[in-house]
Design goal:
By secondary structure, the protein is of the alpha/beta class. It has 18 helices and 29 strands. It has a domain at 503-632: ANL, C-terminal domain (GMP Synthetase, Chain A, domain 3), CATH 3.30.300.30. Helix 4 (88-104) packs across helix 5 (121-133) and helix 9 (255-267) packs across helix 10 (286-298). The structure holds coenzyme A and adenosine monophosphate (AMP).
């Protein structure tokens, strides 16, 4: 087994050589001659000039190389009581046929396609079919409301939108089509064609001239081959919450992505081709893109697509049942999911019904894994639990214990060490490196390794402004953290307005925009406060317009309804209170971080620029009375 330290050092000293070596694992049509170059905007690009196709690598390559009959995709749906397994051969033919359908509908290389779908096999076929044609997919999480979908439609300008008639949330049927119809009405950009997969338990209404039936079109489609793409051609756009109300379109290229994900399966997750790998996430998030769909398939593993929750579908034993039944070797989920299981089954009784001895490791991400959750899971399963840190922007882990190297002891609460290629530093506000054990901004020295975002969709300027301008020569991650004397990194949370609610990344600015739109609201602040189950939940603090006489309870219900309608239930916005004033600096900036500290019971330094310290006192009293925040519960 290789030694992590020396491999890591090599990756920083000569990134070009390191990644050109890793690139040999890919079956390119034209192998790379260049490692890293700069494009016309001065942005780094990996493997310019090389040619490949991601769908070919994920499917055809394996079919041609002895894996045709191996299970590629296992679909497990405890909410619809369905289960289906696709071999690599079958997954290839489903994808070829759907690619043929899309081609018949005029989709060509470079077109964008929005996919707004639940966790069903068709969503995987759709992503791979787009990749086959060189069309750029943009999957939108099914829990987002029509307005969020409309914003993404306007930015991505898709030639086609793919959707399904609905899904099931535990027992509640969610109809997708009315949301799609509303989004298309709200969007300025007009989508010509909507292709709908009808599920048996919910029928979507169809609009003549625009909406087409997926299954009927498939009957007429013929299988379609792959096109050769440049390594730097975009594979997908994934919109993610940023510091403004408008989501950012993260771009992923084909070449760097394939190299990085293949490397990660071997060196981070320590899996072998043929292993069963399960990421219990949603394809609407980055974890779903990278570790439900692309990485396991690029690496020749069997992946599981799970349409359910960790609890209530039907119970807190569902994860252990799937691991047992499908012999899962490595699992990936979010700490919030483990907390949900722990809450329902604190003694791990359900786990005892199953044999999970096949499971070698559980990887956790989406938020920092708290020590109590780590210990509970570690004790119950008796295996190493690996917390690892990354984001939509990176597309793959940046800090992790890398299991393909010599194993380094886990320190609960830490995501461990930087992954090869990531030169991570903790900087102070002037860009100076912080000493060990002192918190600062997490920044990564450029160039970023392959697989990370080269830019934002059609917006190099915003990319530079948002990520590259804060510290010259570094990528700004948006998280705070510190490094201890042994080199372990601890991520302490976002330094901006992004919050993580049950593993879902949301922007408080987006929520504030919705709350501020209420006719009685003069101004507001939405902050993410610590929550035992979900990690964080948003709470609204609202100042009423003079002359508004709305009852506090009525206002709260109306705001909750508005957020559900405009952002989605997934925001878990369940509390809004009226305040006389918001705490502000003399220049009028709302002291959101200080408000968060009060709710979370954390110490803080009173900002010297505070306008009126009594506002904080009143706020604390209100939080106590209304039981807002773990400090007052
Ligand atoms: N479509 C429609 N609605 C959705 C949805 C979807 N895809 N996903 C969630 N929602 C709704 C839920 O039904 C719920 O509605 P409600 O307020 O009416 O009950 C709301 O959004 C909040 O959902 P959720 O965050 O899932 O909370 P929960 O209380 O139902 O479940 C957990 C809590 C912890 C079990 C669940 O959030 C979970 O499994 N989280 C892990 C997420 C994850 O894996 N993230 C990926 C990062 S690795
Ligand atoms: P997303 O882009 O949705 O994956 O969210 C990324 C953000 O989630 C990061 O910027 C962090 O704030 C948080 N995050 C993800 N994984 C971890 C982790 N292991 N520890 C701490 N924070 C994490």
């Amino acid at each position: 087994m290789q030694d992590y330290q020396s491999h890591y050092k090599e990756s920083l000293e000569d990134p070009e050589r390191f990644w050109m070596e890793q690139a040999k694992a890919i079956d390119w049509f034209i192998p790379p001659k260049n490692g890293i170059t700069k494009d016309d905007s001065g942005l780094y690009r990996w493997f310019d000039g090389a040619r490949l196709n991601t769908s070919y690598l994920a499917l055809d390559y394996h079919v041609n190389n002895g894996r045709a009959d191996q299970d590629a995709l296992i679909y497990e749906s405890p909410v619809t009581y369905e289960s289906h397994t696709y071999s690599y051969r079958e997954l290839l033919s489903e994808t070829e046929l759907l690619a043929g359908l899309l081609k018949d509908q005029g989709v060509v290389k470079g077109d964008t396609v929005i996919i707004y779908m639940p966790m069903i096999p068709q969503v995987v076929f759709a992503m791979l079919a787009c990749a086959r044609l060189g069309a750029v997919h943009s999957v939108v999480f099914g829990g987002f409301a029509a307005r969020e979908l409309a914003i993404r439609i306007d930015d991505a300008k898709p030639r086609i939108l793919l959707t399904a008639s609905g899904s099931v949330e535990i027992k509640r049927v969610i109809q997708y089509k009315p949301l799609v119809d509303e989004a298309l009405d709200l969007a300025n950009y007009k989508v010509d064609k909507v292709i709908v997969w009808q599920r048996p338990f919910v029928k979507a209404g169809m609009k003549a001239g625009r909406d087409l039936d997926w299954a009927s079109l498939l009957k007429k489609a013929s299988p379609c081959g792959y096109v050769e793409l440049d390594a730097t051609d975009p594979l997908y756009i994934l919109y993610t919450s940023g510091t403004t109300g408008k989501p950012k379109g993260i771009v992923r290229d084909n070449g760097g992505h394939a190299v990085a994900l293949k490397y990660s399966m071997k060196y981070i997750y320590g899996v072998e081709p043929g292993d069963v790998y399960w990421a219990a996430s949603d394809v609407g998030w980055i974890v779903g893109h990278s570790y439900i769909v692309y990485a396991p398939l690029l690496y020749g593993c069997t992946t599981i697509l799970y349409e359910g929750k960790p609890v209530k579908t039907p119970d807190a034993g569902t994860f252990w049942r799937i691991i047992h039944q499908h012999k899962v070797g490595v699992m990936f989920t979010a700490p919030t999911a483990i907390r949900a299981i722990k809450r329902e089954d604190p003694n791990g009784t359900k786990h005892r019904h199953y044999d999970t001895s096949c499971l070698r490791n559980v990887f956790l991400a989406g938020e920092r894994c708290d020590v109590a959750t780590y210990k509970w899971l570690h004790n119950m399963l008796g295996i190493e639990i690996i917390d690892h840190w990354w984001q939509s922007e990176s597309g793959w882990p940046m800090i992790s214990n890398s299991l393909g190297y010599d194993f380094l002891p886990v320190k609960p609460g830490s995501a461990s060490f930087p992954v090869c290629g990531f030169d991570i530093h903790i900087l102070d506000e002037y860009g100076k490196r912080q000493p060990n054990n002192v918190e600062g901004a997490v920044a990564i020295k450029l160039p970023l390794p392959p697989g990370c975002l080269p830019s934002l969709w059609n917006n190099d300027t915003l990319f530079k402004e948002s990520y590259l301008s804060r510290y010259e020569g570094y990528y700004l991650a948006g998280d705070g953290g510190y490094k201890d004397d042994e080199g372990y990194f601890f991520i302490t949370g976002r330094t901006d307005d992004v919050i993580n609610v049950a593993g879902h990344r949301l922007s408080t600015s987006d929520l504030e925009e919705v709350v501020a739109a209420h006719e009685a609201v003069a101004e507001c602040a939405v902050i993410g406060i610590a929550d035992e189950l979900k990690g964080q939940v948003p709470v609204g603090f609202v100042v009423l317009k003079g002359g508004s006489f709305i009852k506090a309870d009525d206002l709260e219900s109306e705001l909750i309804r508005m957020v559900r309608k405009k952002v989605g239930a997934v925001a878990s916005f369940k509390q809004a209170v009226i305040v006389k004033r918001l705490p502000k600096t003399r220049s009028g900036k709302i002291l959101r971080a200080t408000m968060r500290c009060i709710a979370d019971g954390k110490s803080f330094t009173l900002p010297s620029t505070i306008e009126d310290p009594t506002v904080l006192k009143d706020l604390k009293k209100l939080m106590f009375e209304k039981k807002i925040g773990i400090a007052f519960n």
